Structures are given as structure tokens and as C-alpha cells.
């Protein structure tokens, strides 16, 4: 089969190559991949000299089951699915545990659905970690990115007053349409405290976001797109103005290898297919144009998601 593999001599450190077909385990379905979506972490990982050449990367992929799991679990042959994994997604075939795939409604746009796994699940699980959001203020940094866009929509649907942080003024109208009540360029510009923060950026934004958290609230660090460390000035982590019990948490979607995401993947795919979630696709094309899409992501020229169609 053909796959996108790490190639440190190539543009964006990726190239199309022939590789061996994956061999499914007893609880794995074999999926013919039709579309994949790109995430900053995996694209950046391909440029790491420590990533072996020939590695098939790719976290998000959607397609159709061509071989059901041998143990009888999971969907039947011919079922459209969306899949998640730590690698192996950017290929014509993917072997994936049935716990890491969700059934997709018939006729759904698989390109759009491929944006769901990392971005949609991360947003959903972080917001759940915050607990009851009805009537509470929630800040989303990096709001115009993949995770950020899903988080704005899901938080608004949960009844939160959403503060979206985006450094691009052109994104304001779009973020308000997604459900943001307030759009600012920097967390330091927020005038009223927030209960929760989903931070995609790290660095100075994480520090300023924490300063905006009310008593009993939390920051959940999902990403570090700024590439900078969060350096807190002396005393910044102590409660100020009566704001006690604030906390900072880290988040990694695949922290628990035994965790299953089938139900959440299926729900997110169904919501997207019904038009109740906007995937925010800003670039879409054949996978032969992978280098352009990957470079746009690395250069911060991409707002929303990039989708590559396999064929």
C-alpha cells in the first residue's frame, strides 16, 4: 500500500512511499482510509530528527471497514468509520482497535469527519473535566485552531459564556458565529475572571490566562503551539484578591492506552454530519499535496483544519 512516511531529506520531512500492509490484531478492524486531517503535533513530530525515517504517522483518519475484527467486536465490513491512533493513519489502509473508532452516519462527508478525533475529542474531554459549565465563563486560547474551534462550539452548547482568544482579528466574526460571546487578542485583555481555561498556546498566554481564573477555577493545558515555556513571575501561583484553590492541569488524549473512544467519536461524527458542529476546514485537497498543507501548518498560516483525501 501507499503511505505518507517520514523522510528527513524531503520537503516537510514527508514523502509518499510503498510500505507493507498493516496486520490487524484480533480486536482490530482493517479500514480503507479515504481522508485524513492534520494536527500540528504530528506534523512537527515528523521534523524531529529522532523520528525514524519510514515511520507512517497520522492520528486522524476516516474511511470504510474492509475487514471486521476477528474477535467479532466492532462494526461490519462496509461500515463508514472515523478512527484515532498514535500513528499509521496517513496510509491507504489502517488497522485500528475497535475501541478507537466510531461509526459514522451513512452519506456523511468523510473528509469533514476526519477532523473529529484529536481536535473534537480533546475539546470534549477537557470541557467535561471542568464539570458543570452552564452560566460559567470559559476561556479558549488558540480559538481559531482545530481544538479551539470545537471547544468554542461545545462550551457554548453547554451553556457557558465563551471568551475566545485569537491573535487574528479576521477570525472574530467567525468565532462569534460559532458561539463565542467575547473575542480578545490576548488573555491579559479579559476584564472579568473566568471559571475555566482550555489553553492551546502555552507560554505567556498560559500565564496570563491563569491570572484571569476565579476562585476554584482551573486551567487545562492542552497544547503548546507558541513553542514557549510558561514562566510565572514570583508569587503568581499564589491566590490573589481572594481567588483561592485555582489549579493548572495538563492533558494528553492518549494518556490511557486502554481508554475507548467509540461512543464519543460516533457522537461527534453524528453531530458534524447533522450540521450541528462546524469542522472549520480551511484547506482541502489530494494527499499528493501533503507538503503544502504540512508547511502551512508549521508556518502558522493555517486557521482551522487541513484535510487530505486519499486516492
Annotation keywords:
single chain, 311 residues, alpha/beta, Quinone Oxidoreductase, Chain A, domain 1, Rossmann fold, 2 domains, 7-stranded mixed beta sheet, 6-stranded parallel beta sheet, 8 helices, 15 strands, 24% helix, globular
CATH topology of the largest domain: Quinone Oxidoreductase, Chain A, domain 1
Please identify, by name, the CATH architecture of the largest domain: Alpha-Beta Complex
Q: Estimate the mean pLDDT confidence.
A: 93
Instruction: Give the CATH level 1 class of the largest domain.
Output: Alpha Beta
Please count the helical segments: 8
Q: What's the CATH superfamily of the largest domain, by name?
A: Medium-chain alcohol dehydrogenases, catalytic domain
Instruction: Give the helix/strand class.
Output: alpha/beta
What Rg do the Cα atoms give?
A: 20 Å
SSE pattern, N- to C-terminal: EEEHEEEEHHEHEHEEHEEHEHE
State the helical fraction. Answer: 10-25%
| Overall body shape | globular
Which band does the percent of strand residues land in?
Answer: 25-35%
Largest sheet: 7 strands, mixed
Q: What is the count of structural domains?
A: 2
Number of strands: 15
Low-confidence stretches: none
The end-to-end distance, rounded to whole angstroms, is 11 Å
Structural topology:
Blueprint: E1 2-6, E2 14-18, E3 28-37, H1 40-46, E4 60-67, E5 80-84, E6 93-97, E7 101-103, H2 110-113, H3 116-130, E8 137-141, H4 146-157, E9 161-165, H5 172-178, E10 182-184, E11 194-199, H6 203-211, E12 213-221, E13 247-250, H7 262-273, E14 281-286, H8 290-298, E15 305-309
Parallel strand pairs: 8-9, 8-11, 9-10, 11-12, 12-13, 14-15
Antiparallel strand pairs: 1-2, 3-4, 3-6, 3-15, 4-5, 5-7
Amino acid at each position: 500500500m501507499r503511505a505518507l512516511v517520514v523522510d528527513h531529506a524531503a520537503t516537510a520531512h514527508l514523502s509518499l512511499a510503498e510500505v507493507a500492509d498493516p496486520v490487524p490484531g484480533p480486536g482490530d478492524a482493517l479500514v480503507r482510509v479515504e481522508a485524513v486531517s492534520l494536527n500540528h503535533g504530528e506534523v512537527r513530530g515528523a521534523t524531529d530528527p529522532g523520528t525514524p525515517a519510514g515511520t507512517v504517522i497520522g492520528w486522524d483518519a476516516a474511511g470504510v471497514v474492509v475487514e471486521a475484527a476477528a474477535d467479532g467486536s466492532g462494526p461490519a465490513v462496509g461500515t463508514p468509520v472515523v478512527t484515532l491512533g498514535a500513528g499509521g493513519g496517513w496510509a491507504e489502509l489502517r488497522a485500528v482497535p475497535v475501541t478507537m473508532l466510531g461509526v459514522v452516519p451513512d452519506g456523511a462527508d468523510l473528509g469533514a469527519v476526519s477532523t473529529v478525533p484529536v481536535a473534537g475529542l480533546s475539546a470534549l474531554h477537557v470541557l467535561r473535566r471542568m464539570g458543570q459549565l452552564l452560566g460559567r465563563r470559559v476561556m479558549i486560547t488558540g480559538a481559531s485552531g482545530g481544538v479551539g474551534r470545537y471547544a468554542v462550539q461545545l462550551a457554548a452548547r453547554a451553556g457557558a459564556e465563551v471568551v475566545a482568544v485569537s491573535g487574528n482579528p479576521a477570525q472574530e466574526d467567525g468565532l462569534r458565529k460559532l458561539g463565542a460571546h467575547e473575542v480578545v487578542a490576548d488573555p491579559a485583555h479579559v476584564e472579568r475572571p473566568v471559571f475555566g481555561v482550555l489553553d492551546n498556546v502555552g507560554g505567556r498566554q498560559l500565564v496570563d490566562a491563569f491570572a484571569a481564573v476565579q476562585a476554584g477555577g482551573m486551567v487545562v493545558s492542552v497544547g503548546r503551539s507558541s513553542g514557549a515555556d510558561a514562566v510565572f513571575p514570583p508569587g503568581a501561583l499564589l491566590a490573589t484578591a481572594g481567588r483561592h484553590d485555582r489549579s493548572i492541569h495538563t492533558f494528553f488524549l492518549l494518556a490511557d492506552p486502554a481508554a475507548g473512544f467509540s461512543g464519543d467519536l460516533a457522537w461527534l461524527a453524528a453531530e458534524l454530519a447533522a450540521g450541528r458542529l462546524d469542522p472549520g476546514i480551511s484547506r482541502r485537497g489530494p494527499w499528493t499535496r501533503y507538503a503544502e498543507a504540512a508547511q502551512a501548518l508549521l508556518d502558522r498560516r493555517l486557521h482551522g483544519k487541513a484535510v487530505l483525501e486519499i486516492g
